Sequence to fold (450 residues):
Amino acid sequence: MARLAIDLAPASTLRHDARLRARERRQALATTIVVAVAAGFPLIRTSNLFSASTVRDTNYAEGSVLLPVVFGSIFMLAAWVLWMNRQTALRNLRALNPFLLLILLWCACTAFWSPYPVTTVKRTVQLAGLILIGLAVAPPLGNLARFAGTVLSTFTVLLFLCLLVALALPQVGVDYQLGGAWRGIFWHKNIMGIVSAFTVLLWLRQWRESRLDWRVCLAGGLFALMMLVLAKSTTSLIIAMTGSALYLFLARDYVRGRHVTAIAVLGAALLAMLGLHLFYSVMGRLPYWEELVGPIAGLFNKSADLTGRMDIWQLVALEIAKHPWQGIGYGAYWLGVGSPSQYAIDILHYIPLQAHNGYLDVLNELGLIGLALVAAMLAWHAWQLARLIRIDRAEGAFHWAFFVLIVIANISESILFRGVQFEYFWLICSSAMVSARLRLHRQALADARP
Fold:
């Protein structure tokens, strides 16, 4: 009997290892599907395909019928992955950015005074689901390479479909109301622009990490750049150039030291102060907004008021004054005709979907309390990135590049805490991955101590 047990032991061990590998492959496939759908689906026009309008043809308060079905499915898939690895998921949850969880709690609280409590609850559930996805892709369950590779493949395929649609069906894929800018299968030409810009940066990472042949990376990057130009989105062009330069700069070895982040911030602040001092010395006053923004905006054929955004900002400021501390309610303002934004629609003579300033929208919907929590979350994430870049320069530089771009882009476009937008989704996943990465590093250091 003892000899029989010895002979059977290797076979049972092999079967156990095979089951583990099969389970890991299923979980990897599940997270790949979750990331691909979460990143790509909200961008695609699922209705109003042959209309020249660039406005989503959905019910503003309830959203697309397809959206809760699709995202409910991938939320459950992410929850399944976490349940299968619940001990690891619990550790990553404890290490998660605490202010992100506080924001989730505060968003839920705003349902008590929201004029559209059902919408507020739905938006809060979306935020909770995105956090679940972030935990599902965080190491050791996932990693940046798999996450970025999945997003790159998804975006490249979508851009190729945009190319085919724009060539074969220009009435669908080309927006002639905006000067013949391409939009393909996306809702707006700016969406195609931002997708192209992020794809350029993702192909740049593939080339720098030598994950693919350099000729493949070059072809992919040039294709994404071509689609970026055809989208005629100057904001996206700035994002592509700035993000690429920032990533390459931070990834180099000459950016070293424990205080590199503080040095960079202080250096930028010093240059800004010197510029203001020089202007004040010559003109005897501080510069106006138009004088600061005008020269830069002129390079990209834009007006100093950011193409009419200030008109919207002034109208939103009137609403903020009614509920400065608690906000009107998460996702309960820009809901179309008959909603609290009706007076803005009457004055502007069109239906805006956002304030074109993410921080202003957060202040309006979540109040000063919510804005303070968002600021704390961003500051916590920046502090974690400063720690990560000392551990893994390449990974930290890539997270830094996207983080800076999203924080800056949120000034002219509402990105943060706006439904299931890609940039917002990326930031949540980035925060979860960085927190888990630092947790594993601390654990490795603790295990290495005698």
User: Anything to note?
Assistant: The chain is about 70% helix and 0% strand. The beta strands are 174-175, 181-182. The two ends are 42 Å apart (CA to CA). The mean pLDDT is 83.
